[in-house]
TrEMBL record:
Residues 245-336 form the Fibronectin type-III domain. It comes from the Bacteria. CDD domains: FN3, YhcR_OBF_like. The keyword Nuclease does not apply. It comes from Hymenobacter perfusus. Keywords: Signal. Residues 1-19 form the signal peptide. The keyword Signal applies. This is Fibronectin type-III domain-containing protein.
Length: 338
């Protein structure tokens, strides 16, 4: 009887030890994190899959509704067009949105694009979008399949003309224009780029400028047909993007105790006016709203007195400042407000 009891006790001890070891192994397994899901392929790999392939890609969006129902996404090596007439998640994307998109690739008149789009997931916003820079003399080098879908900045351009080489009074939608007169590197204006910030009905710069846009393609035979798609009027960059004060500031609405200072800048920037009875100036007025048409009222001055006035404007590219110029009050009453 004692031997039976002892055997049972030994067997129970073994089972208990095995159960403890199994429990410990289960806890270790539970403590280990699950393996992360593999990252989607790069855009280069997705493009290599070619038309007919269903792919999932990640990238940063480089345009908004100014190109209609088309969005371009890019990573560090490549870009891709994404198109849908019905996907509202796609249509809500704006530049700087980081996204993951799944869909099927197709060839649309030479342009490799994702259409249809199965899903769109926004991962983050406000990501920087930095274009590839190329000098105007070398602009043809980026009108190739290697740069299709990527944002480009062409520096030091001197003209944008009609297809016949004539100056442009107002840009029109769904129309091709020539960069520096070169027919092989056209610019295409999208009809959706409208409104105050859009391209439609705007006049291109007459001085040297940079132009930002995405390389696209439209060809019936599958070769060539590359074109640059600018997005908004700010894609025309004059003076390296600096506000660039144009001409001298001028006084208007002059009266015995003040006047209004007006000046223009080539690009939007803040407004700053410094003034005083001597070239040391001393008094400052700041207006933070970016604009190209600057207007500042300067009150509480002395009648018939000369003041030195210096203006400046600042944006992300830097600050532009004019030389101080004299302006004179008179002895008349303040003009009535209109």
């Amino acid at each position: 009887m004692k031997r039976v009891v002892l055997s049972v006790l030994l067997f129970s001890t073994v089972l208990g030890a095995q159960a403890q070891r199994q429990s410990a192994r289960s806890k270790v397994a539970a403590a280990q994190p699950a393996a992360p899901a593999p990252a989607p392929p790069t855009l280069t790999a997705a493009r290599a899959a070619g038309p007919g392939a269903t792919v999932t890609v990640r990238g940063v969006v480089t345009n908004g509704p100014e190109l209609g129902q088309l969005r371009f996404v890019q990573d560090r090596q490549a870009g891709l067009a994404v198109f849908s007439t019905t996907n509202t998640d796609l249509h809500a994307l704006i530049p700087g949105d980081s996204v993951q998109i799944t869909g099927t690739l197709k060839n649309y008149n030479g342009l490799l694009e994702m259409d249809p789009v199965a899903s769109v997931t926004k991962l983050a916003s406000g990501r920087p979008v930095v274009p590839i820079e190329v000098e105007a003399a070398d602009l043809a080098t980026v009108f190739t399949d290697e740069y299709e879908g990527r944002l480009i900045r062409i520096k030091g351009l001197t003209s944008l003309t009609t297809a016949t080489g004539t100056p442009i009074e107002a840009l029109k939608g769904n129309t091709n224009y020539l960069l520096n007169g070169q027919r092989a590197t056209p610019v295409r204006i999208n009809v959706a780029s409208m409104g105050e910030k859009g391209l439609l009905e705007k006049t291109p710069p007459t001085s040297t400028f940079d132009l930002i846009g995405t390389v696209s393609q439209f060809t019936q035979n599958g070769t060539g047909g590359y074109q640059l798609l600018p997005r908004l009027y700010t894609d025309f960059v004059v003076a390296g993007g600096l506000p660039a004060i144009q001409g001298e500031p001028i006084p208007t609405n002059i009266y015995r105790n003040g006047f209004t200072v007006l000046f223009q800048t080539a690009n939007p920037g803040t407004t700053k006016v410094e003034y005083g009875k001597t070239s040391a100036l001393g008094t400052v007025i700041n207006l933070p709203a970016p604009t190209t048409s600057h207007s500042v009222d300067i009150p509480n001055l002395e009648p018939s007195t000369s003041y030195y006035v210096r203006v400046s404007s600042t944006n992300a590219a830097g600050t532009s400042t004019s030389a101080a110029v004299p302006m004179l009050t008179d002895n008349k009453k303040k003009p009535a407000a209109k």
